[in-house]
Structure formats: C-alpha cells, structure tokens
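To whoever is on call:

I kicked off a structure prediction for a single chain this morning and the downstream step that reads the tokens threw a length-mismatch warning. I double-checked the sequence; it's 198 residues and nothing unusual in it as far as I can see. Pasting both halves so you can look.
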Amino acid sequence: MLETVLLLLIGATICAIAITILFLLRYIGYFFKVNVSTGPSLVQKVKIAYKLHEGQLSDCYQLLTEVSFLWPEKRYIIIHYDNPLSEKTKLRSAVGVIVTGETDKDFEMKLDEHKYQYIELPNVDYSVKTTHPYVTTFSPNLAADKAYRALNCYIHAEKLCAHPYLEIYQDDTIHYMVPLSKQNDFYVDEVIDSLSSN
C-alpha cells in the first residue's frame, strides 16, 4: 500500500514538473510560430542613441540587457549590419534606444555619460517583417534563430534586396524588420568607414 502511494506521488510530481516546463516554454514563446510579410515599417524617421558592438550575437544581447537596465521604460533597437545567422565571429551591430520625442534632460545626460552616439533613421514605406513575444531577457536569444531563418527564407524566395536587419523592442513584442529601401541610411558612420577601408 505504501509503495503504491509513493509511486502515485512520484508520478504526480513528474506530471506537475512536465506541465510546468511546457507552460514556461509556451510563455516564453518557444512554440510561437513566426509569420513573415511585407508591409509598412514600424520605424518612421526616428533618432536613436547607440553603441557599436562587434562580436557574437549572444554578446550583443548582453549589451541590450545593459540598455534595458539603464532605461527600463524606453523602446530599444538593434541594427545588425551582418546576417545574424552568419558564422562570422565579429558581427557588427548598433545597439541602443529610441530617443525621438524625448525631452528628459537627465536621460540625455545619461546617454552622453555612457558615450552613446546618435543617428537618425529614415522613413521607409515597406520592409520585410515579423514579430516574436518579448517576455524575459532570454527572449531575444530564443527568438533570433526562428525569426532570422524565416526572414532569410522569405527574402531569398522573393528575390528581394533587403538589409540591414532591425530589432525593435516595444512593450512585450520584438519587431523584426528588414528595410526594402533607403538601406544605406541605416548604416552608422563607424560601419560606413569600415566598409570604405575594405
């Protein structure tokens, strides 16, 4: 009798753990299906403050965590100048925060104190885009592979000229977009200089 009760308790515990794991995976977007389309861009002529990052994609997301810690209520942005799924060890990305419409002097001073640079992004009528839930600091790493594989497949299948890759973090959603025009206006000076010297 005691053995039966123990077995039932063990079985119930295993089931509870499995259900909890499945719930957590669903919550963080593990089962989320990425849908790609073309349409109006989320970014419409905005000014951003950024730091240039060169390195692995996962390290880029660590810098994003720093940005979100400094300014938890802002919209964050990453511009990837290399294909995020590339095997290159030094991927170039601008990581920062959208500052358009900001009038907080303390915020501006903090940006200058942390040595952020500025660029104004252009209006773009259409881009290739998709979304993914943003619920934890692990969400960008989880979403990147799915989102960028889907975007690359779509761009290749439709034979589109689309670059660079943008991630905009707004509320509980990561918006991925790849502009279909004015692409050169998304390149920061440091990347332009590196391209010119090659």
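Update from on-call: the warning came from a stale cache, not from the record. Cleared it. Sanity check on the structure: DSSP finds five helices and eight strands in the chain.
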